[in-house]
Records
---
Amino acid sequence: MKVTLSGQACGAEVTGVDLTQPLSDEAIANIRSAWLEHHILSFPDQAVDDDDLERFTRYFGDFGTDPFFDPIEGRQHIAAIRRDADETSPLFAENWHSDWSFQAQPPAGTCLLGITIPPVGGDTLFANQHAAFDAMPPDMRAQYEGLTAIHSAQMAYAPDGAYGEQDEGRSMAIRPDESARETQTHPLVRDHPETGRPGLFSCLGYIIGFEDMAPDKALPLLQQLYVWQSREEFIYRHKWQANMLVMWDNRSVLHCATGGYDGHDRLLHRTTIAAYQG
Ligand code: SIN
């Protein structure tokens, strides 16, 4: 197995492993340790199918619970990230986020398999939140350390949210629901559960405020934080290929989708890896 660093703020490419076949314990341990170190791993030229995607996901934990999406037909744990060539609805996941951070136990990771990849555009951006925390000036750090963030899916998946009832013509099977208004809290600055490395967890969007802080004080803090978290020096730009499997660590990075492929189909299959149980 060969791990080649992206040369950017995080991310590495892994070759010399065949994901269409069951992996040895040693290979799984090597992948896990590269994932924890580089936060995003991409595996190019893997002719994997949905069975292989599920088997690969389960090497790293249980499946996560995926609300607000219908799974693809015949599978319980695979969702399609899809956009059709003629689609005009706003791009899915264009804002920075950490997947399902509004859950009590958000998924440790996400796996995404490139199936139909447009010839231009459609890159996924990742922002390293350990680096973002490390580089914070002390006066800024003092504004955020010790805060408990309130997370909710309401702005995205409530019936009046971005993907709610007014969202028409979308090819993805998104199912908004009143349960999106529920809230959960997590420390904003927290140690990674496996590496112990401190970082910023999630961002404005799924974070809707801070405990014991008035909304008019919390919002500017969240906006300032969002700009900091997504500075150029923390970013890895991932370029997709068909038959490429990518896994990322939601505890270490934010990610967002980019457009630029109007007139082309884009389809990826996605699973989530449940929270680490130790
Ligand atoms: C996602 O946020 O799960 C999708 C990212 C992408 O489509 O690039």
Note: The radius of gyration is 18 Å.
---
Amino acid sequence: MSKPPVSKNESTKKIQAIRGMNDLLPDQSARWQYFEGIVQSLMRRYGYAEIRTPIVEQTALFARSIGEVTDIVEKEMYTFEDRNGDSLTLRPEGTASCVRAAMEHGLLHNQTQRLWYQGPMFRHERPQKGRYRQFHQVGVEAFGLDGPDIDAEVILLSARLWQELGLTDHVTLELNSLGSNEARAAYRDTLVAYFEAHHEALDEDSRRRLHSNPLRILDSKNPEMAPLLADAPRLMDHLDDESRVHFEALTARLEAAGIDYVINPRLVRGLDYYCRTVFEWTTTALGSQGTVCAGGRYDGLVEQLGGKPTPAVGFAMGIERLILLLETLELFPAATGEALDAYLVPLDEGAEAPAMLLAERLRGASPALRLQLHCGGGGFKSRLKKADRSGARLALLLGEDELAQGVVTVKFLREARDQQRLPQDALAEALPALLTGEPT
Ligand code: HAM
């Protein structure tokens, strides 16, 4: 097959990142690492184990779990045919992959699992602040437990994360119960009858959803629909007894743990696999993309994908939104950057090889030391200028003189202090004191 012709103009045009997909530059990545460090430690403390799954799956996995008539599956998936003609999709979320992997590897046979994951997800949505086409989630999924205790646990885990990030006063927990699948089916009929009786008041989107996914009409943000929705029959009033008891036990546990919540009877979620408990943590500080974490129970999904009936509950949070929120509220600790401790400068070409060996010796002896070795040659002045620009606290200078005497010259770049010469062998031991400014 011949290659498609490329015009000269085309071939020299700058290639840019795909709209809605972001680069994470070094000054940002320190903030992500701060967030990820807190998350990892939290998961370990609650006994959740990490699972990593591929970012591409068979398209049918998402269509069958998230639901054919959802925004995600209808409009937002990155679906393509691979070279074998198989239909593949970049994962739009993590729950379906997690269930697939747990089933495939026998993790759900007569055992419970508490899993967590983190990684990029892909949805072809209209990009705006807090909404991207490649975004990142941290998610938690607990399998094999059907009581309200585990619902409470995953919510408490998220609440502790807010506490550790300083966000507790800036997020609100919204809760609802969707009831059992049977109760929801009965409620659905009641709801359709109500909307049909008020057909003229429905907007176009809602008319389209009336028979395919009527519960999603409750989610409408159209202000003209607000009075109609306010009077709509409430799911809460149509719960089956078991779901009601489950929900009351959950709210009692949250109250006992001092977690505030509001019941939002219109919270239905945009994915079809949920039943009973659903929840969202929202903030008013981010504009329209204010949901930072969302989840719920999905007791039917494992069976729906061909496994044995297995209760499950989980959530996912949007990392970009949480980073934005921490930035907006100025909640990042000041020292999330990774400044260098020392910059080692061979003062001429002859000192370059010995400087490399000295750098390796220092790194071996002081694992916490952040040391950069000057590379790329240059004149004496430019080498020193680079040392200064590196942001390091100390410059370690190694020239002909130093080599002859087995010493290193230590120059203090950020404080007015006389430079010193120290034996190379004593340097590793002296560095902690030199870096904290103590006299040596
Ligand atoms: P979701 O509500 O679709 O649920 O997404 C969870 C969170 O991911 C959202 O609350 C938001 O913070 C973030 N998010 C979603 N879409 C975007 C986007 N385009 N840009 C930036 N952030 C976004 C799920 O994905 C379920 N799998 C959650 C779950 C896990 N339920 C049970 N287990």
Note: The longest strand covers residues 113-122.
---
Amino acid sequence: MRISELFKNGRTVFSLEIFPPKKNKGDINTIYQTLDGLKNIKPDFISVTYGAGGNLADSSTADICRIIKDKYGITPLAHLTCVNNTREDIDSILEMLKNYGIENILALRGDINPNISPKHDFEHASDLVSYIKSHGDFGVSAACYPEGHIQSASLVDDILNLKTKVEAGAEHLVSQLFFDNSYFYEFREKARIAGINVPIEAGIMPVLNKSQIERMVSMCGASLPPKFSKMCSRFADNPEALREAGIAYAVDQIIDLISNNVDGIHLYTMNNPYVAGKIFDAINSMR
Ligand code: FAD
């Protein structure tokens, strides 16, 4: 199933994101525990990250996408970054995805890791998008940034670059996480004015613990509204309370987004089925 097709049935799309288990924290088989926990949600698709944080990746993204498709019967979306890959590397990954019957790719540049010299076959995600479109029959998605990408001079500059990415063939966009919906609405309006008319899913990350949020925010630059910061400080030493407050905050964000006709919700699950399940149960009847 092509992901762009999912947006044609009139319901708010609900998708999940997981990451491959870290090599030193057990082998790839631990992913079954995550997926067993997530399968009851029956998400529209599950995306699997690729070497996040600018680290080098291996075949685990493709392997997990195959498991999602063949064992769980759910549409997978394979993330793929180009910053550390040559054209030959990308060719062999595309070949593997095709052989596994994986139809959808989230094409990304990837973060630049100061300890790894970038390859220069693809400078921007838009180069990867057009390369994938001309080298296979894949549905291609791309990332977007409600507050502007951290390297961008302005939101308008970033949206103009986003338009290039869509014109190169991206059929669906997934947003960076944000905690203040007003950034998403302003971004969506500007994107539509710029002529970007593909579905835009809102990326929502429930806070699980304080260090997770500090890490994510330092990487992506998302603003923290006072209400959110107060919640994190108030429950910083009570992980259970913070987790439950984080679920309530995410549910509140999602209800507002659905009320404002968002195309889809993309939940960054952090491989935590409990939290994903609670959020899904709270919002499913509203989609
Ligand atoms: P690009 O679209 O190339 O944009 C990067 C910067 O370059 C932006 O500032 C943009 O405005 C600018 N730019 C783009 N095109 C041009 C141009 N033609 N000329 C001049 N400037 C230009 N990282 C991982 O390593 N693995 C993952 O699995 C992963 N998954 C992600 C999923 C989502 C939904 C999101 C939002 C991010 C994800 N990331 C992941 C992080 C992502 O790789 C970084 O944010 C990265 O810094 C930018 O990637 P991009 O694809 O948006 O790049």
Note: The pocket of flavin-adenine dinucleotide is lined by residues 49-52, 54, 79, 81, 108-111, 124-126, 143, 149, 151-152, 158, 161, 164-165, 174, 176, 203 (CB under 6 Å).
